[in-house]
Amino acid sequence: MKVVAKPISMVAWFDAKGVPHPVRFKIEDEEEVVIKVGRVVTQDREKFCGNHMLIFNCQSVINGMEKMYQIKYELSTCKWILFKI
């Protein structure tokens, strides 16, 4: 996987404990692409440069191919980042 670290617009639902569950996201490159999160493989927490983040390793079909990628949710700012793909 290659590090891209791009901000994304995410659609997610939150359970009663406040844990987000990603559904789909939009990334704007040359064109706007919507990717449905097929499966969350793992979920972790990390502290990166003093910022607490939730790390989601996911798997989806993108352009007809099964791909793994990593998205991060920054807890203090509520921002989503496509970190690796």
Question: Short summary of the structure?
Answer:
By secondary structure, the chain is mainly β. The protein has strands at 3-14, 20-28, 32-36, 39-48, 51-62, 65-74, 79-84. It starts with a strand and ends with a strand.
Overview of the structural elements:
The chain has 85 residues and is an all-beta fold. The protein has one domain. The chain contains no helices and 7 strands. It has strands spanning 3-14, 20-28, 32-36, 39-48, 51-62, 65-74, 79-84. The chain has a 7-stranded antiparallel sheet with strand order 3-2-1-7-6-5-4, with no helix packed on it. The termini are close together. The model has no long low-confidence stretch (mean pLDDT 93).
Q: Main traits of this protein?
A:
seven-stranded antiparallel sheet; globular; 85 residues; 7 strands
Query: How large is the count of helical segments?
Result: 0
Main sheet: strands, sense, barrel: 7 strands, antiparallel
Q: What average pLDDT do the residues reach?
A: 93
> Which structural class fits the helix and strand makeup?
mainly beta
The residue fraction in helices comes out at under 10%
Poorly predicted regions are: none
Outline type: globular
In whole angstroms, how far apart are the ends? 5 Å
Q: In what range is the share of β-strand residues? A: over 45%
Gyration radius, to the nearest Å?
12 Å
Structure summary, number of beta strands: 7
Write the element-wise H/E pattern from the N-terminal end onward. Answer: EEEEEEE
